[in-house]
User: Which sequence fits this backbone?
């Protein structure tokens, strides 16, 4: 599967004086990002921040569970609901 880059999003290494907890820096080109998001039809757009030869970049995570796995999750949730358990108990 080809990498789908997120238009309007730039990922940069943290500034050399940034605290250690700063992992990366994100810059959004507003108009490009809005157009990119409007081109998507799903409710969520998931992304991975990756490190490559030329630095950091963001790509769309298009992974979707197989229909078998999705129906298994729904079945398990229905069984939990029948037992009076709504979601994860912790």
Assistant:
């Amino acid at each position: 599967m080809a990498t789908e880059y997120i238009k309007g999003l730039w990922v940069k290494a943290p500034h050399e004086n940034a605290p250690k907890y700063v992992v990366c820096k994100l810059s959004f080109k507003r108009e490009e990002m809005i157009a990119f998001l409007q081109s998507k039809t799903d409710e969520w757009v998931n992304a991975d921040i990756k490190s490559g030869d030329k630095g950091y970049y963001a790509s769309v995570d298009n992974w979707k569970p197989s229909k078998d796995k999705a129906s298994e999750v729904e079945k398990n949730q229905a069984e939990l609901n029948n037992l009076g358990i709504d979601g994860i108990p912790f």
